[in-house]
Every structure is written in structure tokens, then in C-alpha cells.
């Protein structure tokens, strides 16, 4: 892997370059991409170097490299996939099992397609709370007892941050046409000294540095069941959103056939089962085993998650980011 990465960075390719596929935003600590990349190397003999970008950084890089692409495939939150198509940096490709992806979770031409989804909530290191109780609502995060304890990823850059903002805004009475309630919430939260990283903060929650992180269910379940950490996941009482993560084939990428093979793999039965066992909801529902489903919160909790118009969510994202940067940060 080291040789392949060095060669790519230097603009040259080693003799085994046809066994490489470059993915933007395949971070090993997120959604168990680390395990999936090992599976791909084992089963496809294709090396996919780990990459720690977030969704916004991925799209920015694709745009910067539009005339000379470096990546073959990209992974990002759905709104960024929609934008990538609009900007003309991705190619149409319908991978294996494309027809099994529900309508609304794929571009009809294959410019982007969901591979799994997560539900936004509170990823809580209960051991790091001290005497404070586990928060049960968005409103709880504004209480003085959680001062300096709450973290969220930068919503102007990271998709999980934006998805959290959409959830909070709606819970506070806002809509995708009116982010004022959400902006007001973040202004109040700023007074509680939140921690605002740009990339996945999984390790910082486990260490107790960030006791409460606005994040996806799958990260909390991974901490609980894989790392045996003293954590809880809470779906706030006011409600939340479930959002898909999607992938695309990059337009004119250097290794398109390998990129296609990787996309086929993540939507294969084996690839989808891996996501389910990593506590994500696979886009092909039949891949979720009863054993995996049993580790999620009860369906009654997930009933507090309502669908969102993903196309509209993408359309208004830039406007929200501008307001967040000018009024909150």
C-alpha cells in the first residue's frame, strides 16, 4: 500500500498500478471502512488506500482536480453526491444490485447511489459525564451541566455536521426553507463551549475528551459492541433524521475498471453484510441479519426519525453553511 500511495502522490505508477483504486473519503475509523478495505484487498486483490477526508473536502478536491482526476471513486453524504453530479465531476455507473436500491436513494442514471444509512443522535461516553445524567433531548445540550462536554462536526464542511443541523433545526420548528431555529440553537450551544472538529471524532469520544457527540448510531454501536466502551446512543425526544451515504464513480479517474469493481463489491451481498455487521443499515435491507438488527435501539425509538427531502437538503446546504459561518462560528 505504501508504494502505491507514494507512486500516486508522485504522479507515477508502479508495475502493479492496475491493482489500485483511489477512494476519496474512505476513513478507517468511520463506518468500519478499515474492515471493508481489508475485505476488498482480500477478495478483489485491489489496494484502496485509506483516506481521511470528510464529505465537503472530498467534493472540493474533486472540483480542484476536475481536469486531471486523482480519485477513482468517492464516498460522501447524499447532498454532496447530488452536488457532485451537478458539478460534472462524476460518471454514470450502475453497479451490481443497482436495481435493488430503493427509488429516492439513487440517481436514476447512476451518478450516485446509497450504500448504507445512519441515524443522527447523541453518542455519549457515560463514564465521562461525571455526575451529569445522560442527555435525552436536543434541548438538554444547552444546560449548564454539559458545558464543555458537547461536540459536533463542523456543519459547514462535514456531512454528519450538516445532517445534525438539519435534524436540530426541524426539531426546533424549522424547515429546509427556514434554518433560523437551528441557527439560534447553535448560537445558544456556542455559549456552552462546544468542541467542533472537522473530521470523525470517534477516538475522542472513547477517550472521554468529547463526552457527548452529535453523531450517527453506527459509531455508538461500534463503540459499545466492538470496543466494549461504556457508551450509550440516544435518539433525542424531539426527533431526528436518518440519512444515506452514497458513492460515485469519478469522471475520468485513473483506474476506472478497478473503481467499478470496488463499487460492485460494496453493493454485493458480502459488502452489504459487512455494513450491517458494522451497525449501519445496508441499502439492500435483506442484508441485515436478525443478529445485527438486535443490536440497534428498539423500533419505537427509531420512530422518532422522519424522512427528509434529500434533493432539497442538498439545494439549501450552501445557504445554511454561509449562515453558520457568519452567525455562529
UniProtKB/TrEMBL annotation:
One cellular-component annotation, GO: outer membrane-bounded periplasmic space
Keyword Lipid metabolism belongs to the record: no
Keywords of the record: Signal
Pfam families recorded: SBP_bac_6 (PF13343)
MF GO annotations: thiamine binding; thiamine pyrophosphate binding
Biological-process GO terms, alphabetical: thiamine transport
Superkingdom per UniProt: Bacteria
PANTHER family per record: ABC TRANSPORTER SUBSTRATE-BINDING PROTEIN, THIAMINE-BINDING PERIPLASMIC PROTEIN-RELATED
Protein name: ABC transporter substrate-binding protein
Record organism: Thalassospira profundimaris
